[in-house]
């Protein structure tokens, strides 16, 4: 039995060596990813500088290079799409936003930016879907909430707009932003006037049926 001991030692040593090499390879991969992201960030910085000087072509080249280096770097997609929007090429801008959303996990800014573009194009339901997607990743994102509120109003989805407004009101109060809280509260009150009958908070949920009771619960959760 003892004669098998050296063989076991050799086997264990081989396993340890394989694990060490695998760990080293993972570390090198992480270093490569980190380097690519840093380079992409630098290229985006250069693109912004070119755009400031009015050199749109150079700015776009740097942004494309950034995406090529790190296809998961969200700011590069935002920058490139913004360049297309600035020149009126909204089709290409939307394509870039969509490409970014396919590659960047939890891309809140991408959903919000595409939502704003779609709203400007009058595609309100698609815009609302984008803002809702952004908020599914970041429920307290102020820009996405604002975009969703405005889009709901444009869709005449006033109960949903009221819920969004009250959420903004609560968030502004929580962070101590008196001006934003005042504005959100004024908007909420204006919507209450329009929705005196349907407002799930002011009117309460009593004797309003299952739909209105559900709406009341939803709005209270959003406060």
Automatic annotation (TrEMBL):
The keyword ATP-binding does not apply. The keyword Signal applies. TPR repeats lie at residues 108-141. Gene3D superfamilies: Tetratricopeptide repeat domain (1.25.40.10). Residues 1-27 form the signal peptide. InterPro entries: TPR-like_helical_dom_sf, TPR_rpt. Keywords: Signal, TPR repeat. This is Tetratricopeptide repeat protein. The lineage of its organism: Bacteria, Pseudomonadati, Myxococcota, Polyangia, Polyangiales.
């Amino acid at each position: 039995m003892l004669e098998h001991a050296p063989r076991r030692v050799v086997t264990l040593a081989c396993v340890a060596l394989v694990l060490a090499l695998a760990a080293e390879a993972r570390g090198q991969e992480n270093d490569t990813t980190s380097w690519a992201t840093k380079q992409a960030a630098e290229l985006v910085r250069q693109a912004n500088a070119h755009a400031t000087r009015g050199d749109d072509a150079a700015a776009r080249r740097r942004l494309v290079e950034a995406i090529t280096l790190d296809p998961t770097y969200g700011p590069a997609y935002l920058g490139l799409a913004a360049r297309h929007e600035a020149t009126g090429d909204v089709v290409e801008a939307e394509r870039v936003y969509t490409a970014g959303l396919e590659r960047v996990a939890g891309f809140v800014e991408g959903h919000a930016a595409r939502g704003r573009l779609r709203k400007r194009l009058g595609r309100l339901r698609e815009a609302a879907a984008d803002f809702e997607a952004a908020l599914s990743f970041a429920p307290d994102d102020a820009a996405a909430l604002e975009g969703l509120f405005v889009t709901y109003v444009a869709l005449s989805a006033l109960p949903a707009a009221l819920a969004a407004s009250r959420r903004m009101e609560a968030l502004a109060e929580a962070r101590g932003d008196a001006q934003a809280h005042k504005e959100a509260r004024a908007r909420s009150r204006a919507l209450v006037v329009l929705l005196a009958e349907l407002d799930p908070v002011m009117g309460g949920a009593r004797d309003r049926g299952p739909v209105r009771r559900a709406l009341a619960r939803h709005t209270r959760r959003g406060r």
